Amino acid sequence: MANAAPKLLIVGSINRDLIFYGPHGSQMKPNACLVFDSWAAYHGGKGANQAAAAAVLGAHPTLVGAVGSDPAGEEIASALKALGVDVSGVARVADTQTGLSAIFTMPDGSYVGANVLGANGRITPAMVEAALDAQPFDMVLMQLEMPLETVYRTHELARERGLRVILDAGPAQRIDLTRLKGIYMISPNEAETEALTGVVPSDEDSALKACRILVEAAQARYALLKLGGRGAYLYDGERGISFPAFNVQCVDSTAAGDTFTTALMMRICLGETLPRAIRYANAAAGLCVSRRGGLASVPTADEVSAFLREQEDAL
Predict the structure, then answer these.
(1) Residue ranges of E strands in 99-196
(2) Which active-site residues does the annotation give?
(3) Bridge partners, 223 (sequence order)
(4) Do the Cβ atoms of 128 and 10 come closer than 8 Å?
(5) Please, is 155 exposed, middle or buried when counting C-beta atoms within 10 Å of its C-beta (0-12, 13-18, 19+)?
(6) Are 86 and 60 within 8 A, CB to CB?
(7) Residues in CB range of 79: below 8 A, 6 or more apart
(8) Taking a C-beta distance cutoff of 8 angstroms, is the pair 187, 166 a contact?
(9) Which terminus, N or C, of the chain has the lesser number of Cβ atoms within 10 Å?
(10) Contact 154, 128 (CB under 8 A)
(11) Which residue spans within the chain are E strands per DSSP?
(12) Which of 71, 73, 75, 62 is nearest to 8 (CA)?
């Protein structure tokens, strides 16, 4: 397996996360007020979470994104830089706010969220092209918390340069999969899978059905579904394989999917087989859900390795 730290380009959102903990049984209904025990503010956004995860896990990530002119934007960009993220591709937009996510945790560790795009709506294809022209990369990762035209064009720009692209397909929404023709991998969670395909991946048969829709529509090399506590499901155009999750206590799943996809991409770049890379990614996500916060919950490479050794010793 290759030893050089992968150089990863991550295109995506930067947010201030407000996370509410300890719900009192209220449900999301019109005119209802949800009651929680406590709240906390974290640095977040799918792009920022993934860039942070890449740096903490030992890669060399460059983030293309945008923040507003408020103090939150400067604070998050500085925190990412301190972790080792190249933030030269992060624009400061004078006439808008930094993105915001309100995240309401549920008793089982899942969450319901609401996003304000803010400066994330100003991420442009030109910003991505400038980053790709500035230095070589091993792989590109993107999400959907930005203008869809930027998503489609990022894939096209990367493909023109022979770079593999992973789409972490959140937040859940319907997109034109044909605009992603030839993409290396599409990786949605359960809600995102339903939004993209109309299929709820509740078992192996439905997971396979959803993956076939994704792969055929985008002519993708792989579809990889993130199924929370049920693990992951990989489809390569011919067959599907399930990869069970590790048994951990879920406290907060906020950045788990971001950590999973980033860890997976890193291990692929390091030359690991997909099954081994998915196991590693499951371990990283398992550690992530056992902690609170977005960027703050991402484990180090040493922590993931130690966790995997513990799991093997327990067999």
Answers:
(1) 99-105, 111-116, 139-142, 165-168, 185-187
(2) 258
(3) 186, 235
(4) no
(5) buried
(6) yes
(7) 43, 295
(8) yes
(9) C
(10) yes
(11) 7-11, 15-21, 38-44, 60-67, 86-92, 99-105, 111-116, 139-142, 165-168, 185-187, 222-226, 232-235, 240-243
(12) 62
Angstrom distance (rounded) from CA 75 to CA 77: 6
* Tokens (6 digits) for 94: 């004078």
3-state class (DSSP) for residue 139 = strand
Which one is predicted more confidently, 108 or 147? 147
Residue 69 CB coordination number (10 Å): 15
The model's pLDDT over 230-266, given as tens digits with 9 standing for 90+, comes to 999 999 999 999 999 988 887 777 678 899 999 999 9
Spatial separation of the C-alpha atoms in residues 306 and 59, rounded to whole Å: 18
Chain position carrying tokens 């930005």? 146
Task: Tell me the C-alpha to C-alpha distance, in Å, between residue 163 and each of 26, 166, 197.
Answer: 46, 10, 26
- DSSP strand pairing (7-11 vs 60-67): parallel
Specify the residue for token string 């070589």. Answer: 136
